[in-house]
Structures are given as structure tokens and as C-alpha cells.
Predict the 3D structure of the following.
Amino acid sequence: MSDPILTLYQGLERLGPGAPEDVAWAAHVADVPPDARICDAGCGTGADIPALMAVAPVGHVTAVDEAKLFIDEVLARYGTTVRAYAGDMVKLKGPYDFIWSAGAVYFHGVTKVLRAWRPVLAKGGAVAFSEPCLFTDTPSEAAVAFWGGYTPLTDAAGIAKQVGAADYEVLATRRVSDAAWQSYYGPLAERVEALRRNADPALALVLDEAATEIAAWETVRGETGYLLSVVRPA
Ligand SMILES: C[S@@+](CC[C@H](N)C(=O)[O-])C[C@H]1O[C@@H](n2cnc3c(N)ncnc32)[C@H](O)[C@@H]1O
């Protein structure tokens, strides 16, 4: 495998912050039925799949990611208990009662993605997604820089506006916890150190960037993070 980013992330359980409690909370807010058809959009290596299966014990989960390597890991981990395919999460087929998307919508923009998902949501269906968010009116430069120039970066009210622009309503929001970030950055930091020994220059650069991000998080975590929003077509 030559892509240093994939080298860093392959095999990691989480590719972004998250916790089973967040999935359970969002499913409760969205009133997800036990037989729900669920999509994990931008599933990565499938960290949230067990929690999604738990909220719909007689439903099914379809996991979608553009990286085939990650989908192969999902299939190796969960086998036939989950449907999984490599494809574009913006072009889902559906229908789905619940679309879950952790740390992936921001690659494409909240309004654009929610509009694209509207036709594939079943009647009464809902979406839960996490999005970079500022938790202060006076963010430091470091807090803004943490997101690497992400221009739609805004606060909870700003995210709600983007949701409204897609003609959805916000059912509830909550901040992704520090523990959820730790469950991502803890194993990632270990992986960075393990890979350093034999890293070529391209991989070394990626490792340095990851280490810098992890260190930066410690200083900015009071000011910024992910906001989890549960939304439904208005
Ligand atoms: C930060 S990772 C989060 C992965 C996973 N949800 C988690 O929390 O561990 C974002 C994921 O979104 C995927 N992604 C980004 N754009 C995508 C697209 N258009 N279609 C499918 N997957 C996409 C990436 O490949 C990556 O696996």
C-alpha cells in the first residue's frame, strides 16, 4: 500500500472521534424503530456499526465508504451481518430510516449532503451527523487553524442555518465528548509512534501532521470540536 494516509489509518478501529453512547442518543432522538434500515455514510473502518446494529436489532445496516480498503476491513470484521460497499455517500440509493454520518459530511458540505439524502430518506426518516463546530464566540487562531482552513467552520447556530437551507429541522444537538475524541486519538498516537521506526519521508510527513493535530487538540478542545446534530426533513 503506497498511500501514506491509508498506511496510517488502515486497521484502526476509529477514523474519527465517536462513542456508542452518541449513536444510542441520536437513535433515541430520531425514534429509530427496531427494524430500521440504517446507512452508515462515510463509515471508515466501521467503528459505529455495532452501536448502529444495537439500535435496530431486527433491521439492517448498510455501510458506505469511498475507500475500498476500509470497506474490506468492514466486511472482514462484520461479515454478512452488515451490507457494505465502496461508493459515494453523497449518492446513496436507499430507502433509509436513519442515516448516520460521523466526521464525513464536512468533506462535501452540510446543505449539499442533506439535500442529496432527502430523496433516499423513508417517510419519518432522520439523519445524524457530526460537524466541526466552534463552541465559543471568540475562538483563538489555534482553534480555527485546527480545522485546516475549513471555510464553512461555524458555531451551532451556523450549522443549524446550513441544515435549514436544506429544508430540514434540527431535532437536537450535542457536543461529541472528550472521551470520544480520546478513543480516536489514543490509538492513533500509538500507531504514529509504531510507524515512525521504518517511515519513508512521505509517511514521516503524514505522521508528523497527525502528531501535530493530536497535540493541537489538547490546547483547543475547550473551544472547538464536533457537534452531533439529529435532523429531519421539515
Ligand atoms: C474522518 S473519517 C470517519 C470514518 C468513520 N465514520 C469513523 O468515525 O470512524 C471520514 C470518512 O469519510 C469517507 N468519505 C469522505 N467522502 C466520502 C464520499 N463522498 N463517499 C464515501 N465516503 C466518503 C472517507 O473515506 C473516510 O473514511
